[in-house]
Amino acid sequence: MKFFKYPSILLVATTVLALNVQADPSRLNINTASAETIDKTLVFVGQQTARKIVEYRKQYGTFNDLDDLAKVKGVSKRLARYNRNRIRFQ
């Protein structure tokens, strides 16, 4: 059974949307934000976790994606995915 008549158009459209989401300046740049800003912007992230994110970033370098962010102690993949619409990496 075929779900999409033109899968290549769907692929292009999804790629364009993904690129637009990453470049959205209204999102929090997790690689430059202060702990205070992270605490205020992200849902279910408090001061302690926000400090851990900044400390991890200083020690290991920038985050490239949600999986990198989930490596921080106190940030699960589920929490990272929940906040994906509030975060950008560039």
From TrEMBL:
The keyword Signal applies. It comes from the Bacteria. It holds the Pfam family HHH_3. Residues 1-23 form the signal peptide. Keywords: Signal. This is Helix-hairpin-helix domain-containing protein. It comes from Endozoicomonas euniceicola.
